[in-house]
Amino acid sequence: MNLSTARSANRGKEVGLRKILGAHRKRLVVQFITESVCFSFFALVLAVNLVWILLPAFNKLTGKEITITSLITWIVVLGLFGLVVFTGIAAGSYPAFYLSSFQPINTLRKKVQRGSHRSIIRTFLVIFQFTISIILIASTFTVLKQLSFMKNQKLGFKKEQVLAVRIKGKVFQEQFEAFKNELKKNVNIIEASYANGIPGKTGTILTTFLEGQPDSVTYTFDFIFADYDFLKTYEIDLVKGRDFSREFGADKEGAYLINETAAAKLGWGEETLGKKIGFSREIMRPIVGIVKDFHYRSLKQVIGPLAIYLRPRHDIYLSIKMNTDDVSSTLSYIEKTWNAFEKERSFEYFFVDENFDSLYHSEEQLSQIITFFAFVAIFVACLGLFGLASYTAEQRTKEFGIRKVLGASVGSILLQLSRNFLKWVLIANVIAWPVTYIVMNNYWLSNFPFRIHLSLLIFVVAGMIVLTIALLTVSYQSIKAAVANPADSFRYE
Q: Rounded CA gap, 392 and 50, in Å?
């Protein structure tokens, strides 16, 4: 619509001649809308081919398995044709009604008025497009900054250099200690620990009874069933008490470590250590230590009350803390040792830091999608801006010729042609900044208990990017008009 209205004066003579030859306004309206619908149909053909080409990349981005044949349904086909008609009519309606209203005598004399109404609509469309572009760019920066914050935030444990191996079956469990001790003979293996969960993969939620409380009073905790070396493997800090220890014979029968949140929830204060909790009244075991709160789940969730119980279960993980001096040889040693102990299952592993970062996969997808649409929005907006710059330069050709004859510099003419467009982009910034702040701060970021604070720099950078792109877009037409020969300008019609 913006391009059509901007270039409408160039078709003024056509409209005038058609009217003189007897064409009615209704027929002209139909003609221009039909042209717009045809353009929309050609765009559909191009779009379908682009979908076919880009579908593999889309599936990779979204993790889907969509095929082109699955998209060809009668609902989709009808929807696409309806979209073609709607887009064609919406884009062509204003130019059609405007062009058909031209008076033949004025169009033949090139006296079509550049009314303020058309100018307002074109201005609104440009401002609207660049507002959307700035919102998308600022949103992209916000998502990327929040994602970086979550990936680089101190978690309360060390996830780097830790390898995790999933172990199943009771047969292997009979050789737990032997397998772990064999691994630790390698100088590049610092520590190892069995547990039914690792940070990022803790799904056991159980209800416990408390010493000195009636059966009706129970508490729900997240649980990790682990061995003696869990804290040492992940370098989790103790706040009070002690770690599990083989030197304390009672620990072998079962003991608990709880985090600070769990200690606060129990409300025992200084008397927490030594108190007993359990899954039943018959099996109550003491709390021997309080660990510093750590993010055993992603930063998209609050730190809940956690209990670490000294008792590995059947389906568990072996976490192996390694040196990074020679990772390949260390992995080969672990695999060789695994094969000596486990005859039925192949050696499969993953790194804890990569697994933890994968918890933010949806945020990474969102940042990629917003970035893509930001580029699309800027591209479309710049197309309209380029068309308007071309139109404006054409309309003011004689004016610029006169200015040059009277001594105007190339820079002043460049400023004359560019300032309106840059003013529109600045207005778009004024609109986009508060909208983006409200949407991202009050809606998207509010979903994260651990989050960034939006800074002014995000909006300034987004605005500067769009402003620079807009300036580059209009610079070609501006420079072309500024350096034109004044003699050619006076002969221009």
A: 33
10 Å CB burial of residue 223 (0-12, 13-18, 19+) is buried
In the chain, where the domains are located: 1-113, 114-153+358-493, 169-344
Digit-coded pLDDT (tens) for 304-334: 999 999 986 656 899 999 998 889 999 999 9
Report the C-alpha gap between 356 and 29 in whole angstroms. 60
Neighbours of 333 (CB within 10 A): 17
CA dist., res. 421 & res. 481, Å (int):
15
**Cα–Cα distances in angstroms (integers) from residue 192 to residues 28, 159, 272, 309, in the given order:** 81, 13, 29, 17
Query: How is residue 43 written in tokens?
Result: 């765009």
Report phi then psi at 99, rounded to 5: -60, -40
Q: Which pTM was predicted?
A: 0.80
User: Angle at CA 233, nearest 5°, toward 294 and 165?
Assistant: 105
Question: What does the pLDDT read at residue 175?
Answer: 82
- CB-CB contact of 133 with 466 (8 Å): yes
pLDDT in tens, 354-374: 999 999 988 988 898 898 889
Per-residue CA distances from 478 to 9, 123, 263, 396, 485 (Å) = 20, 18, 69, 11, 14
User: Amino acid identity, residue 476?
Assistant: Y
Nearest-angstrom CA–CA distance, 126 and 122: 6
Contacts of 485 (CB under 8 A, 6+ apart): none
Contact assessment for residue 322 and residue 183, using Cβ atoms and an 8 Å cutoff: no
